[in-house]
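PROTEIN DESIGN WORKSHEET
SECTION A - STRUCTURE
LENGTH: 486
TOKENS:
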């Protein structure tokens, strides 16, 4: 006998006789603990929220596909990139970085741009942002950086002094700060912004030859941004503006799309290029390494359930497939651990088994048990390796390609400390109107900083990037550029 599909049931499938009134001792008596349906509802309600992401808590997502439009098989053996016309299903999550789950979409903040490709060789996650660089280049600084973006532990308010204190003491942040404070700091919609892998990765072809690679997703909708006034107005009137815009566009068939390009660098160039190619605070010149088209990403289906698909989606730059490896980028190296570890804490040890994260190909391994193991847990199959019972074994041809390393084990900084050239180049590329808005945004953001020494220290960084840049910020704050750097 089965329950009528229209009947409300408990989580164990029994029909519910009354969902409007608790069981009590008489009409006015206390509630009875034997009302197991009531207890189940309240207990489950208390546990409906998994811990929100420490960063990238507010996000929106969509399903789609990636289609290869150019032959890149000379550079990578990744199966999903193997032939022109090949389509691979995917899921994308866009997000703000610093705000909480209920924060406004239209704040000045980088946007996460995470793509999960469901390939025949397993999932491949490309976890980037809408900017080609980042604030820091060593993962050991990441917790401190994020603390400055969050709330002050005493006031529980955002703290501009902490933000600019950290940035002024971390000059490698200048390039990203200049992008963030420019027009690009507030995208008009999630559809009208580019995406970047940001880090340097390694592609390896079928012959075992490798190249360094950077990813660029170029929006086919065109880049559009919001002015601070409009963004603030939208934040008050519709804090979910970006989420709503993406959903409505897809729902009405206006499917957003991006072209994927890569920059390719020969391995040996890494030793002689004028910037460290593994430093995520730097870009590669497109004159030196032109964009090469790879394919096209289209988002054509909204999630059916936000929690199951967007909130429980987990991404990690360590989710790789044969033909795509990592680089010595120190920030990337830290993320390889931190992202998956965050998901194990937030969603559970078996987060990869959830439908939104589960690979489309068969999974064969010896991982067992753990919370929320909802499949057959490996059944009665052999549960260790090596074994004598025909269990799955490694395939040596899928080892990551080797590369030489050398040096003394030590806490070592990057060799190159030019934090100003690329930030200055960016400033000089801007039109006069764009420079004016950039400076105005910086001045407005720095006005609440409590210590003048922090403002002066940051002004020095702007000045070293471009004297006009630093002077205009100083003038806007009613300060003078320190004489020792003029």
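SECTION B - SEQUENCE
RESIDUE ASSIGNMENT:
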């Amino acid at each position: 006998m089965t329950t009528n599909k229209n009947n409300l049931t408990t989580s164990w499938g029994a029909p519910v006789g009354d969902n409007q009134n608790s069981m009590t001792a008489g009409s006015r008596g206390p509630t009875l603990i034997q009302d197991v349906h009531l207890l189940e509802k309240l207990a489950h309600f208390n546990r409906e929220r998994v811990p929100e992401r420490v960063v990238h808590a507010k996000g929106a997502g969509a399903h789609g596909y990636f289609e290869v439009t150019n032959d890149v098989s000379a550079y990578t053996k990744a199966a999903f990139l193997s032939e022109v016309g090949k389509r691979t299903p995917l899921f994308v999550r866009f997000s703000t970085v610093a705000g909480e789950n209920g924060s406004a979409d239209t704040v000045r903040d980088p946007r996460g741009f995470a793509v999960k490709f469901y390939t025949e060789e397993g999932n491949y996650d490309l976890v980037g942002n809408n900017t080609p660089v980042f604030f820091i280049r060593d993962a050991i600084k990441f917790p401190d950086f994020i603390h400055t973006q969050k709330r002050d532990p005493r006031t529980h308010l955002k703290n501009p002094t902490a933000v600019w204190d950290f940035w002024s003491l971390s000059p490698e942040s200048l390039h990203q700060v200049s992008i963030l404070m420019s027009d690009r700091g507030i995208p008009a919609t999630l559809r009208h912004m580019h995406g970047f892998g940001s880090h340097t990765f390694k592609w390896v072809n079928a012959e075992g030859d490798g190249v360094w690679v950077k990813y660029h997703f170029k929006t086919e909708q065109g880049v559009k941004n919001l002015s601070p006034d409009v963004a603030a107005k939208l934040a008050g009137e519709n804090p979910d503006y970006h989420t709503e815009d993406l959903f409505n566009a897809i729902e009405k068939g206006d499917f957003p799309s991006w072209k994927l390009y890569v920059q390719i660098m020969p391995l040996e160039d890494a030793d002689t290029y004028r910037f460290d190619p593994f430093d995520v605070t730097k870009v590669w010149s497109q004159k030196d390494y032109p964009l090469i088209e790879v394919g096209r990403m289209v988002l054509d289906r909204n999630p059916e359930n936000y929690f199951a698909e967007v909130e429980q989606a987990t991404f990690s730059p360590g989710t790789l497939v044969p033909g795509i490896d990592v680089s010595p980028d120190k920030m990337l190296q830290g993320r390889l651990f931190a992202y998956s570890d965050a998901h194990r804490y937030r969603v559970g040890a078996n987060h990869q088994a959830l439908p939104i994260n589960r690979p489309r190909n068969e999974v064969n391994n010896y991982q067992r048990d753990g919370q929320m193991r909802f499949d057959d847990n490996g059944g009665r199959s052999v549960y260790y390796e090596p074994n004598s019972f025909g269990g799955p074994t490694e395939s040596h041809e899928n080892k990551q390609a080797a590369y030489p390393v050398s040096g003394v084990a030590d806490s070592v900084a990057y060799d190159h400390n030019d934090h100003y050239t690329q930030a200055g180049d960016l400033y000089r590329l801007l039109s006069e109107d764009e420079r004016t808005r950039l400076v105005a945004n910086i001045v407005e953001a720095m006005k609440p900083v409590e210590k003048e020494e922090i403002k002066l220290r940051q002004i020095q960084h702007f000045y070293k990037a471009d004297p006009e840049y630093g002077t205009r910020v100083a003038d806007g704050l009613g300060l003078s550029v320190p004489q020792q750097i003029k």
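SECTION C - NOTES
The longest helix spans residues 330-346.
The chain has two domains: 59-358, 421-485.
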